[in-house]
Specification:
It contains 7 helices and 4 strands. The protein is of the alpha+beta class. It has one domain.
């Protein structure tokens, strides 16, 4: 009788440990599937794994906040030419952000700008470099921090492949046993801004 109870307890503990391990690994598996879908241009999988409107809204909000922070750090008394440049930048900036987001936050946009034939990857190839062996090519090495925010939200901070000064905070949300990209916040704009 004690052997049967001991086996039952052992089986239960092993089952719980295995299930917990699968749960902990599951958001990384979801991120991996999304990465593969982007590389292959699989729009169906991307549509299943990305909430496009909330992602776009979080990107818009965070980019505009970073641009506002950048504007706050401008010199106190700029010359007339710099003042005109700042006025134009402030007026056109939100429209440019919207244009870029409309172009890039979609299955075709993800594939075009993050896939293996992105403009930056093609520029690297034209320069005689192999983008798949460059330092930023491994997404796992670009992750700075990853954690569960709660039982249904997993966040990871990741550096841009081409601009190490650009940093994103991606949030995956567990719904219907599927981890979906629900928001992306820009934490730092990087060199290109």
């Amino acid at each position: 009788m004690m052997n049967a109870i001991s086996r039952a307890v052992t089986t239960t503990v092993i089952t719980v440990v295995v299930l917990a391990g699968l749960y902990v690994a599951s958001p990384l598996a979801g991120a991996y599937l999304l990465n593969r879908a982007i590389k292959s241009g699989d729009a169906g999988t991307m549509n299943a794994l990305v909430d496009w409107q909330p992602v776009k809204a979080s990107l818009r909000r965070s980019i505009l906040a970073r641009l506002d922070e950048k504007a706050q750090s401008r010199p106190g008394h700029p010359g007339w030419l710099e003042r005109a440049k700042y006025t134009l930048t402030d007026a056109v900036g939100p429209y440019m952000v919207e244009y870029v987001l409309d172009e890039r936050v979609s299955p075709s946009g993800f594939t075009t700008y993050m896939g293996p034939h992105s403009p930056k990857a093609e520029a690297a190839r034209a320069a005689g470099l192999d983008p798949d062996t460059m330092p930023g090519s491994d997404p796992l090495k670009r992750i700075r921090h990853a954690e569960f925010a709660d039982l249904t939200h997993f966040q990871f901070e990741i550096v841009d492949r081409w601009d190490p000064g650009k940093v994103f905070l991606a949030t995956l949300e567990l719904r219907d046993f599927l981890w979906r990209l629900s928001s992306v916040d820009v934490l730092a704009l990087g060199e290109g801004t």
